[in-house]
Amino acid sequence: QVQLVESGGGLVQPGGSLRLSCAASGSIRSINAMGWYRQAQGKQRELVAAITSGGRTNYADSVKGRFTISRDNAKNTVYLQMNSLKPEDTAVYYCNAYYLGVDGTRYNYWGQGTQVTVSS
């Protein structure tokens, strides 16, 4: 089992910045990758950014150049630095961690979610 605890959401004006943190505990050695998803009201959950255990990253096109995902292995924590925030970034942000079983099945773990609101 993996437990994920998020922090760092809040209200920010357009053009502002926020940093989200996700601390992992439990069976973290099994994790293949961690990432951030978001779900805006009335929309499906979507991938924002992810980072593998080897450090490879990928981003949604909508956040490239504005958001940066990073990890601190010593603290078992993943961060999402969000700059130049836009109102359309408003959503509940969820931390995700997963591992792949021997048959390729993906096993997901989720944080409780943190609200990010971008508004003037």
Tell me the strand percentage band.
over 45%
- The end-to-end distance, rounded to whole angstroms, is 40 Å
Regions with pLDDT < 50 over 5+ consecutive residues? none
Number of helices: 0
Query: How is the biggest beta sheet arranged?
Result: 7 strands, mixed
Number of strands: 11
Helix content: under 10%
Oligomer: single chain
Radius of gyration: 14 Å
* SSE run: EEEEEEEEEEE
Structural class: mainly beta
Overall body shape: globular
- Mean pLDDT equals 95
Give an overview of the whole structure.
- The chain is mostly beta strands and about 120 residues long.
- It contains no helices and eleven strands.
- The protein has strands spanning about 1-5, 10, 20-25, 35-40, 45-50, 55-60, 65-70, 75-80, 90-100, 105-110, 115-120.
- Strands 2, 4, 5, 6, 9, 10 and 11 form a seven-stranded mixed beta sheet that branches.
- A hairpin with a 5-residue loop joins strand 9 (about 90-100) and strand 10 (about 105-110).
- The mean pLDDT is about 95.
